[in-house]
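EI: anyone free to look at a 375-residue chain?
SC: sure, send it
EI:
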Amino acid sequence: MFARSGVGVSRFPICATVTLASVALEMPVVWSESCLLHEPGGEVWIGLPDPGNEVPARAEAIRAALGGAGARLVPAEPHEDDALLAVHDAELVDFLRDAWQLWRAAGYPDDPGQPRVVPYIFPHRGLLAGLEPSVPAAMSARTGMFAFDTMTPIGEQTWEAARAAVDVALTAADLVLDGAPAAYACTRPPGHHVTRSAYGGSCYLNSTAIAAQYLRDRGMTRVAIVDVDAHQGNGAQAIFAGRNDVLTGSVHVDPRAGWFPHFVGFEDESDSSNRNLPLAPGSGDDDWLAGVGELARWVEDVDALVLALGVDAAEADPTGPLRVTAAGFREGGRILGALGLPTVVVQEGGYVLETVGDLVLAALTGMEEGRVEGA
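SC: here you go
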Protein backbone atom coordinates (compact mmCIF):
# COMPACT_ATOMS: atom_id res chain seq x y z
CA MET A 1 0.00 0.00 0.00
CA PHE A 2 1.16 3.53 -0.57
CA ALA A 3 0.45 4.26 3.09
CA ARG A 4 1.36 7.89 3.44
CA SER A 5 1.64 10.06 6.47
CA GLY A 6 -0.55 13.09 6.67
CA VAL A 7 2.57 15.09 7.49
CA GLY A 8 4.83 14.05 4.65
CA VAL A 9 6.56 10.86 3.57
CA SER A 10 9.80 9.89 5.24
CA ARG A 11 12.45 9.17 2.63
CA PHE A 12 15.49 7.09 3.52
CA PRO A 13 18.30 6.16 1.15
CA ILE A 14 17.98 2.70 -0.35
CA CYS A 15 20.40 0.36 1.38
CA ALA A 16 22.49 -2.19 -0.42
CA THR A 17 20.87 -5.51 -1.26
CA VAL A 18 21.09 -7.95 1.63
CA THR A 19 22.81 -11.23 0.81
CA LEU A 20 22.14 -14.40 2.78
CA ALA A 21 24.94 -16.75 1.85
CA SER A 22 24.25 -20.48 1.59
CA VAL A 23 20.60 -20.13 2.60
CA ALA A 24 18.44 -23.11 1.67
CA LEU A 25 14.78 -22.36 2.32
CA GLU A 26 12.74 -25.47 3.08
CA MET A 27 9.39 -23.71 3.52
CA PRO A 28 7.08 -24.24 0.51
CA VAL A 29 6.28 -21.06 -1.41
CA VAL A 30 2.82 -20.84 -2.96
CA TRP A 31 2.49 -18.77 -6.10
CA SER A 32 0.04 -17.80 -8.85
CA GLU A 33 0.97 -15.90 -12.00
CA SER A 34 -2.48 -14.30 -11.82
CA CYS A 35 -1.29 -12.18 -8.89
CA LEU A 36 0.62 -10.13 -11.47
CA LEU A 37 -2.53 -9.13 -13.37
CA HIS A 38 -3.41 -6.16 -11.14
CA GLU A 39 -1.97 -3.00 -12.68
CA PRO A 40 -2.97 -0.07 -10.44
CA GLY A 41 -1.76 2.51 -12.92
CA GLY A 42 -0.97 4.86 -10.07
CA GLU A 43 -3.28 6.27 -7.42
CA VAL A 44 -4.81 9.51 -6.20
CA TRP A 45 -3.31 10.93 -3.01
CA ILE A 46 -4.59 14.21 -1.53
CA GLY A 47 -6.18 14.91 -4.88
CA LEU A 48 -3.02 14.44 -6.93
CA PRO A 49 -2.00 11.59 -9.23
CA ASP A 50 0.87 9.52 -7.90
CA PRO A 51 2.66 6.56 -9.53
CA GLY A 52 2.26 4.44 -6.40
CA ASN A 53 4.42 1.57 -5.14
CA GLU A 54 2.21 -1.53 -5.20
CA VAL A 55 3.36 -2.90 -8.56
CA PRO A 56 3.62 -6.43 -10.01
CA ALA A 57 7.42 -6.32 -9.84
CA ARG A 58 7.17 -6.58 -6.02
CA ALA A 59 5.92 -10.15 -6.20
CA GLU A 60 8.36 -11.06 -8.96
CA ALA A 61 11.29 -9.79 -6.88
CA ILE A 62 10.18 -11.85 -3.88
CA ARG A 63 9.67 -14.98 -5.93
CA ALA A 64 13.10 -14.58 -7.53
CA ALA A 65 14.85 -14.21 -4.18
CA LEU A 66 13.11 -17.23 -2.66
CA GLY A 67 13.63 -19.31 -5.77
CA GLY A 68 17.30 -18.42 -5.63
CA ALA A 69 17.39 -19.86 -2.13
CA GLY A 70 16.09 -23.17 -3.42
CA ALA A 71 12.50 -22.75 -2.27
CA ARG A 72 9.96 -25.19 -3.68
CA LEU A 73 7.29 -23.32 -5.64
CA VAL A 74 3.79 -24.73 -5.24
CA PRO A 75 1.05 -23.58 -7.64
CA ALA A 76 -2.07 -22.18 -6.01
CA GLU A 77 -5.20 -24.31 -6.17
CA PRO A 78 -8.65 -22.78 -6.73
CA HIS A 79 -10.98 -22.53 -3.73
CA GLU A 80 -14.67 -21.84 -3.39
CA ASP A 81 -15.96 -18.37 -2.54
CA ASP A 82 -17.23 -19.68 0.81
CA ALA A 83 -13.85 -18.80 2.31
CA LEU A 84 -14.22 -15.16 1.20
CA LEU A 85 -17.77 -14.90 2.45
CA ALA A 86 -16.74 -16.18 5.86
CA VAL A 87 -15.01 -12.83 6.52
CA HIS A 88 -16.37 -10.40 3.89
CA ASP A 89 -19.91 -9.23 3.23
CA ALA A 90 -21.39 -10.59 0.01
CA GLU A 91 -22.08 -7.02 -1.13
CA LEU A 92 -18.37 -6.16 -1.01
CA VAL A 93 -17.37 -9.34 -2.84
CA ASP A 94 -19.99 -8.75 -5.53
CA PHE A 95 -18.91 -5.13 -5.95
CA LEU A 96 -15.24 -6.01 -6.36
CA ARG A 97 -16.04 -8.77 -8.84
CA ASP A 98 -18.19 -6.55 -11.06
CA ALA A 99 -16.75 -3.08 -10.47
CA TRP A 100 -14.58 -2.67 -13.54
CA GLN A 101 -17.21 -4.03 -15.95
CA LEU A 102 -19.82 -1.67 -14.48
CA TRP A 103 -17.36 1.23 -14.66
CA ARG A 104 -16.69 0.51 -18.31
CA ALA A 105 -20.41 0.16 -19.03
CA ALA A 106 -20.96 3.58 -17.44
CA GLY A 107 -18.53 5.07 -19.97
CA TYR A 108 -15.99 6.51 -17.51
CA PRO A 109 -12.93 5.24 -19.47
CA ASP A 110 -14.07 7.52 -22.33
CA ASP A 111 -15.66 10.38 -20.42
CA PRO A 112 -13.95 11.80 -18.39
CA GLY A 113 -11.17 9.38 -19.41
CA GLN A 114 -10.64 7.48 -16.16
CA PRO A 115 -9.78 3.83 -17.00
CA ARG A 116 -9.82 2.65 -13.38
CA VAL A 117 -12.50 2.55 -10.72
CA VAL A 118 -11.98 5.32 -8.17
CA PRO A 119 -14.51 6.97 -5.84
CA TYR A 120 -15.17 10.67 -5.66
CA ILE A 121 -17.75 10.86 -2.84
CA PHE A 122 -18.21 8.87 0.36
CA PRO A 123 -21.32 8.27 2.53
CA HIS A 124 -19.89 10.17 5.49
CA ARG A 125 -22.06 10.10 8.60
CA GLY A 126 -22.09 13.89 8.59
CA LEU A 127 -23.60 13.86 5.12
CA LEU A 128 -26.24 11.26 5.95
CA ALA A 129 -27.26 12.79 9.31
CA GLY A 130 -28.48 9.46 10.65
CA LEU A 131 -30.09 8.19 7.44
CA GLU A 132 -29.15 4.90 5.81
CA PRO A 133 -27.46 5.53 2.47
CA SER A 134 -29.34 4.59 -0.68
CA VAL A 135 -27.42 2.78 -3.40
CA PRO A 136 -26.35 5.56 -5.80
CA ALA A 137 -27.24 5.34 -9.46
CA ALA A 138 -23.80 6.66 -10.48
CA MET A 139 -21.04 4.05 -10.35
CA SER A 140 -18.54 6.75 -9.32
CA ALA A 141 -20.64 7.42 -6.23
CA ARG A 142 -21.45 3.75 -5.55
CA THR A 143 -17.73 3.06 -5.32
CA GLY A 144 -17.57 5.32 -2.27
CA MET A 145 -19.90 2.93 -0.42
CA PHE A 146 -17.17 0.26 -0.47
CA ALA A 147 -13.82 2.10 -0.81
CA PHE A 148 -12.46 4.11 2.11
CA ASP A 149 -9.75 5.95 0.19
CA THR A 150 -8.81 7.14 -3.29
CA MET A 151 -5.50 5.31 -3.50
CA THR A 152 -6.90 1.83 -4.24
CA PRO A 153 -7.98 1.83 -7.91
CA ILE A 154 -9.65 -1.14 -9.57
CA GLY A 155 -8.49 -2.03 -13.06
CA GLU A 156 -9.64 -4.53 -15.65
CA GLN A 157 -7.92 -7.51 -13.96
CA THR A 158 -7.76 -6.37 -10.35
CA TRP A 159 -10.43 -8.87 -9.29
CA GLU A 160 -8.57 -11.78 -10.89
CA ALA A 161 -5.35 -10.83 -9.09
CA ALA A 162 -7.00 -10.28 -5.70
CA ARG A 163 -8.95 -13.52 -6.03
CA ALA A 164 -5.75 -15.36 -6.96
CA ALA A 165 -4.04 -13.92 -3.88
CA VAL A 166 -6.77 -15.53 -1.77
CA ASP A 167 -6.20 -18.88 -3.47
CA VAL A 168 -2.47 -18.54 -2.79
CA ALA A 169 -3.12 -17.94 0.92
CA LEU A 170 -5.64 -20.78 1.16
CA THR A 171 -3.31 -23.20 -0.62
CA ALA A 172 -0.62 -22.32 1.93
CA ALA A 173 -3.17 -22.99 4.67
CA ASP A 174 -3.96 -26.37 3.09
CA LEU A 175 -0.27 -27.29 3.17
CA VAL A 176 -0.11 -26.46 6.88
CA LEU A 177 -3.31 -28.38 7.59
CA ASP A 178 -1.73 -31.33 5.78
CA GLY A 179 1.27 -31.25 8.10
CA ALA A 180 3.77 -28.72 6.78
CA PRO A 181 5.28 -26.81 9.73
CA ALA A 182 4.93 -23.55 7.78
CA ALA A 183 4.06 -22.34 4.29
CA TYR A 184 4.59 -18.97 2.64
CA ALA A 185 1.91 -17.34 0.47
CA CYS A 186 3.51 -15.00 -2.07
CA THR A 187 0.41 -12.86 -2.37
CA ARG A 188 -0.21 -9.68 -4.27
CA PRO A 189 -2.08 -7.33 -4.04
CA PRO A 190 -1.87 -7.13 -0.23
CA GLY A 191 -5.02 -7.43 1.86
CA HIS A 192 -4.66 -6.64 5.55
CA HIS A 193 -6.47 -3.27 5.47
CA VAL A 194 -9.74 -4.71 4.12
CA THR A 195 -12.55 -4.93 6.67
CA ARG A 196 -15.71 -7.00 6.43
CA SER A 197 -17.42 -4.41 4.24
CA ALA A 198 -14.81 -1.96 2.87
CA TYR A 199 -11.55 -2.01 0.93
CA GLY A 200 -8.62 0.42 0.76
CA GLY A 201 -4.94 0.88 1.53
CA SER A 202 -4.06 -0.77 -1.82
CA CYS A 203 -5.88 -3.89 -0.53
CA TYR A 204 -8.98 -5.59 -1.98
CA LEU A 205 -9.56 -8.93 -0.21
CA ASN A 206 -8.10 -9.72 3.20
CA SER A 207 -6.12 -12.87 2.42
CA THR A 208 -4.62 -12.94 5.92
CA ALA A 209 -8.03 -12.87 7.63
CA ILE A 210 -9.45 -15.36 5.14
CA ALA A 211 -6.61 -17.79 5.87
CA ALA A 212 -7.12 -17.44 9.63
CA GLN A 213 -10.86 -18.15 9.42
CA TYR A 214 -10.17 -21.06 7.04
CA LEU A 215 -7.88 -22.65 9.64
CA ARG A 216 -10.58 -22.16 12.29
CA ASP A 217 -13.21 -23.75 10.08
CA ARG A 218 -10.98 -26.79 9.59
CA GLY A 219 -10.33 -27.65 13.19
CA MET A 220 -7.83 -25.17 14.61
CA THR A 221 -9.51 -24.16 17.87
CA ARG A 222 -7.61 -20.90 18.38
CA VAL A 223 -5.71 -19.01 15.71
CA ALA A 224 -3.60 -15.87 16.06
CA ILE A 225 -2.80 -13.26 13.45
CA VAL A 226 0.46 -11.41 14.09
CA ASP A 227 0.90 -8.45 11.77
CA VAL A 228 4.40 -6.97 11.46
CA ASP A 229 3.67 -4.67 8.53
CA ALA A 230 4.67 -1.05 9.10
CA HIS A 231 0.98 -0.08 9.08
CA GLN A 232 -1.59 -1.43 11.52
CA GLY A 233 -3.64 -4.45 10.47
CA ASN A 234 -6.97 -2.71 10.86
CA GLY A 235 -8.83 -5.22 8.69
CA ALA A 236 -8.25 -8.23 10.92
CA GLN A 237 -8.91 -6.15 14.03
CA ALA A 238 -12.31 -5.15 12.65
CA ILE A 239 -13.25 -8.57 11.30
CA PHE A 240 -12.41 -10.54 14.45
CA ALA A 241 -13.27 -7.92 17.09
CA GLY A 242 -14.43 -9.54 20.32
CA ARG A 243 -13.69 -13.08 19.15
CA ASN A 244 -11.29 -14.94 21.40
CA ASP A 245 -10.96 -17.80 18.89
CA VAL A 246 -8.95 -15.53 16.54
CA LEU A 247 -6.49 -13.20 18.24
CA THR A 248 -5.18 -10.20 16.31
CA GLY A 249 -1.94 -8.42 17.15
CA SER A 250 -0.03 -5.72 15.30
CA VAL A 251 3.27 -3.89 15.76
CA HIS A 252 3.34 -0.79 13.57
CA VAL A 253 4.13 2.90 13.30
CA ASP A 254 1.94 4.98 15.59
CA PRO A 255 -1.05 6.46 13.71
CA ARG A 256 -0.96 9.38 16.16
CA ALA A 257 2.24 10.44 14.41
CA GLY A 258 0.23 10.90 11.21
CA TRP A 259 0.47 7.47 9.58
CA PHE A 260 -2.02 5.18 7.87
CA PRO A 261 -4.63 3.96 8.83
CA HIS A 262 -4.88 7.26 10.77
CA PHE A 263 -8.20 6.62 12.55
CA VAL A 264 -7.45 3.24 14.20
CA GLY A 265 -4.48 1.23 15.45
CA PHE A 266 -4.02 2.82 18.86
CA GLU A 267 -2.83 1.08 22.01
CA ASP A 268 -6.06 1.82 23.90
CA GLU A 269 -7.98 -0.39 21.43
CA SER A 270 -6.24 -3.45 22.88
CA ASP A 271 -8.34 -6.00 24.74
CA SER A 272 -8.43 -9.75 25.33
CA SER A 273 -8.66 -10.50 21.59
CA ASN A 274 -6.65 -7.66 20.07
CA ARG A 275 -3.32 -6.04 20.85
CA ASN A 276 -1.85 -2.94 19.19
CA LEU A 277 1.79 -2.00 19.76
CA PRO A 278 2.39 1.36 18.06
CA LEU A 279 5.97 2.55 17.60
CA ALA A 280 7.35 6.06 17.30
CA PRO A 281 8.69 7.11 13.89
CA GLY A 282 12.37 6.29 13.63
CA SER A 283 12.09 3.14 15.76
CA GLY A 284 14.55 0.45 14.72
CA ASP A 285 15.40 -3.14 15.50
CA ASP A 286 15.34 -2.94 19.30
CA ASP A 287 11.86 -1.44 19.64
CA TRP A 288 10.40 -3.45 16.79
CA LEU A 289 11.79 -6.74 18.10
CA ALA A 290 10.51 -5.94 21.58
CA GLY A 291 7.04 -5.61 20.03
CA VAL A 292 7.38 -8.85 18.06
CA GLY A 293 8.52 -10.61 21.24
CA GLU A 294 5.57 -9.27 23.22
CA LEU A 295 3.12 -10.49 20.58
CA ALA A 296 4.86 -13.88 20.43
CA ARG A 297 4.45 -14.34 24.18
CA TRP A 298 0.81 -13.28 23.94
CA VAL A 299 -0.09 -15.88 21.28
CA GLU A 300 2.16 -18.77 22.34
CA ASP A 301 -0.76 -20.96 23.46
CA VAL A 302 -2.82 -20.85 20.26
CA ASP A 303 -3.11 -23.76 17.82
CA ALA A 304 -1.93 -21.98 14.67
CA LEU A 305 -0.35 -18.73 13.59
CA VAL A 306 -0.98 -16.54 10.55
CA LEU A 307 1.85 -14.06 10.05
CA ALA A 308 1.00 -10.95 8.04
CA LEU A 309 4.52 -10.35 6.76
CA GLY A 310 4.99 -6.79 5.65
CA VAL A 311 8.61 -5.74 5.27
CA ASP A 312 7.82 -2.05 4.77
CA ALA A 313 9.10 -1.41 8.30
CA ALA A 314 12.52 -1.59 6.65
CA GLU A 315 14.82 1.39 7.05
CA ALA A 316 14.87 2.04 3.28
CA ASP A 317 11.15 1.81 2.58
CA PRO A 318 9.58 5.15 1.57
CA THR A 319 6.05 4.27 2.74
CA GLY A 320 6.87 4.34 6.45
CA PRO A 321 9.28 5.87 8.97
CA LEU A 322 10.55 2.75 10.77
CA ARG A 323 14.17 1.59 10.48
CA VAL A 324 14.18 -2.19 10.81
CA THR A 325 17.20 -3.90 9.24
CA ALA A 326 17.51 -7.23 7.47
CA ALA A 327 19.07 -8.61 10.64
CA GLY A 328 16.03 -7.36 12.53
CA PHE A 329 13.62 -9.16 10.20
CA ARG A 330 15.65 -12.35 10.54
CA GLU A 331 15.58 -12.13 14.33
CA GLY A 332 11.85 -11.35 14.26
CA GLY A 333 11.31 -14.46 12.18
CA ARG A 334 13.41 -16.45 14.64
CA ILE A 335 11.27 -15.26 17.57
CA LEU A 336 8.06 -16.31 15.85
CA GLY A 337 9.48 -19.54 14.48
CA ALA A 338 10.61 -20.59 17.97
CA LEU A 339 6.92 -20.79 18.95
CA GLY A 340 6.80 -24.03 16.97
CA LEU A 341 3.25 -23.30 15.80
CA PRO A 342 1.78 -24.41 12.46
CA THR A 343 2.25 -21.17 10.54
CA VAL A 344 0.84 -19.62 7.38
CA VAL A 345 2.87 -16.61 6.24
CA VAL A 346 0.96 -14.16 4.03
CA GLN A 347 2.81 -11.39 2.21
CA GLU A 348 1.64 -7.83 2.85
CA GLY A 349 3.73 -4.67 2.34
CA GLY A 350 7.32 -4.03 1.26
CA TYR A 351 7.99 -1.70 -1.66
CA VAL A 352 11.70 -1.27 -2.39
CA LEU A 353 12.27 -3.55 -5.36
CA GLU A 354 16.01 -3.81 -4.80
CA THR A 355 15.61 -5.26 -1.30
CA VAL A 356 12.09 -6.62 -0.79
CA GLY A 357 12.98 -10.18 -1.83
CA ASP A 358 16.00 -10.42 0.43
CA LEU A 359 14.08 -8.96 3.37
CA VAL A 360 11.33 -11.56 2.98
CA LEU A 361 13.99 -14.26 2.68
CA ALA A 362 15.63 -12.99 5.87
CA ALA A 363 12.34 -13.23 7.78
CA LEU A 364 11.51 -16.71 6.49
CA THR A 365 15.06 -17.96 7.13
CA GLY A 366 14.81 -16.66 10.68
CA MET A 367 11.53 -18.53 11.12
CA GLU A 368 13.12 -21.80 10.08
CA GLU A 369 16.12 -21.19 12.33
CA GLY A 370 13.84 -20.38 15.25
CA ARG A 371 11.77 -23.51 14.74
CA VAL A 372 14.93 -25.66 14.84
CA GLU A 373 16.31 -23.85 17.87
CA GLY A 374 12.99 -24.06 19.71
CA ALA A 375 12.41 -27.74 19.00
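EI: Strands lie at 29-31, 43-45, 48-50, 73-75, 182-185, 223-227, 246-253, 274-279, 304-309, 343-347.
SC: 👍
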